[in-house]
Amino acid sequence: MANILVTGGAGYIGSHTCVELLNAGHDVVVLDNLSNSSVESLNRVQELTHKSLTFVEGDIRDGKTLDQLFGLYQIDAVIHFAGLKAVGESQQIPLTYFDHNIAGSISLVQAMQRAEVFKLVFSSSATVYDEANSSPLNESMPTGMPSNNYGYTKLIVEQLLEKTSQADVRWSIALLRYFNPVGAHKSGRIGEDPQGIPNNLMPYVTQVAVGRRDKLSIYGNDYDTVDGTGVRDYIHVVDLANAHLCALNNRLEQHGCRAWNIGTGNGSSVLEVKDAFEKVNAVAVAFEFAPRREGDVATSFADNARAVAELGWKPQYQLEDMLADSWNWQKQNPIGYKS
Ligand code: NAD
Ligand code: WQD
């Protein structure tokens, strides 16, 4: 059992990963500045697992906080979720994104080096792949220049981690390229709680269903896909959380830097998701077709064979589970953690 630092652990994916880490018997220290989350998620993580974790409120860009943290707790490995993730916002305030996501990651890695902690799992994204690749996307395909600044920060951090590991063989780094995380813990006690108008499909759908928004705008119905709407690889957040535990085990044994896709390998269109959501949950989702959203691709789904073979990871949940669990969370928490 290990002592794991989870940066951004109060957030959507981080909180679900904390549950799985605690359930597996690990000790957990969370560092989060709460800029996009609340401590209530961590209270609920502890309530669900009947275990306690250590919470440090602070910023990954603050080297002193990091040094104190590494000095106080005997950290064995770091799972690094902290960062900003709104694609549209990243176009308006690029420097803020570069600061949190790139400078923040450098600050963390420097502190890890000072503390001689060399095991790291990083939240990357399928957005790093070159748009010219066709799905299923595999890890040997070239990365490209992402169409937005958020994606750019993920690509840069992947590259700087790769170069860091090449320069010092003590590093052991996992780059997990997430596809589209959705769903929530079965209990409905923790889930995705976006501030303001959701950017992503699933929280928008659940907020329409619960009456917080009028209707879903489906961005484009003239793509070259099964029904003209965009196709994505939705992955249950609990499967995604477990991928971090598998990656951690792999990195505790192996050196170097390696990327893995974390997706189911199945693509679903926006209309398929909306229709299945209505059917599984017996609730209506009003919608309209709207113009394509800038920067969107028609189709993106994973080849997950490398993760399955090398990490011993396998997704357990189907789309129907994801939709039922997203709705269960939203119904129980109509205004998120504030309710
Ligand atoms: P989230 O916003 O719910 O969680 C991120 C957490 O990091 C939040 O709790 C926030 O308060 C914290 N944070 C932000 N900046 C910080 C800083 N400078 N110092 C300390 N804490 C900071 O987001 P999430 O959906 O859980 O995403 C987690 C990670 O996964 C992010 O790096 C994101 O870019 C990446 N990712 C997410 C998706 C997705 O669709 N959700 C897809 C691919 C990759
Ligand atoms: C999915 C599909 C939309 C909202 C983004 C980031 C990526 C990663 C995950 C996170 C697309 C359509 C959406 C809506 C719609 N980032 N859609 N109406 O764009 O695949 O990926 O989130 O940290 O980097 O780019 O996910 O959920 O926004 O969209 O029709 O109101 O749903 O056009 O086809 P995307 P998404």
TrEMBL record:
GO biological process, one term: galactose metabolic process
EC number(s) recorded for this UniProt protein: 5.1.3.2
Cofactor(s) needed for function: NAD(+)
Domain NAD-dependent epimerase/dehydratase span(s) in chain numbering: 4-263
Gene3D superfamilies: NAD(P)-binding Rossmann-like Domain, UDP-galactose 4-epimerase, domain 1
A GO CC term attached to the entry: cytosol
Catalytic activity: UDP-alpha-D-glucose = UDP-alpha-D-galactose
SUPFAM superfamilies in UniProt: NAD(P)-binding Rossmann-fold domains
GO molecular function: UDP-glucose 4-epimerase activity
Assigned keywords, A-Z: Carbohydrate metabolism, Galactose metabolism, Isomerase, NAD
Pathway: Carbohydrate metabolism; galactose metabolism
InterPro entries given in the database record: Epimerase_deHydtase, NAD(P)-bd_dom_sf, UDP_G4E
Principal EC category: isomerase
Pfam families from the UniProt entry: Epimerase (PF01370)
Family: Belongs to the NAD(P)-dependent epimerase/dehydratase family.
Quaternary assembly: Homodimer.
Name by which UniProt lists this protein: UDP-glucose 4-epimerase
